[in-house]
Amino acid sequence: MDVSSSAGSGSGSAGSDGQSSASSASSSSSSSSSSSSDSQVHVDTDKLQQAADTLGELAWSLKHATDSFQDQSDSYGEPWGDDKTGKNFVGQYQQPHSDAVQAGTDGSSALTDATGQLTDLVSALKSIEAQALATGQQVSVEPADGA
What we know:
Layout: E1 2-6, E2 40-44, H1 45-75, H2 84-135
Helix pairs in contact: 1-2
């Protein structure tokens, strides 16, 4: 499903079938048609949802890896002992280990948040397009920064 908008003239349209001939969710492969004073922006909501799903899978994998790392580390107990060498080792080990676990936890949370935001965006774009198609209105979006 595609949503079309025009950045220059203030008007754009989504096709009657909700599809556009040129669409992509990424800027590296995006297609846009342009006239002398306006350019069309096409958002492929199916590809955007696929990206959200992939981020969700990555978030789950990172969380699972972090949990496994922590569980396995915990299962070893404190094998370094209480002597001078053991204390030296743990002094060098604890902070990097804690940082690694925190990075995994934070990364997983960030990816989970991004997944939710992308999914919400897809829902909003589909709703806008459905409303525009139902009312026969053209979808137009004015850039927030005035560009």
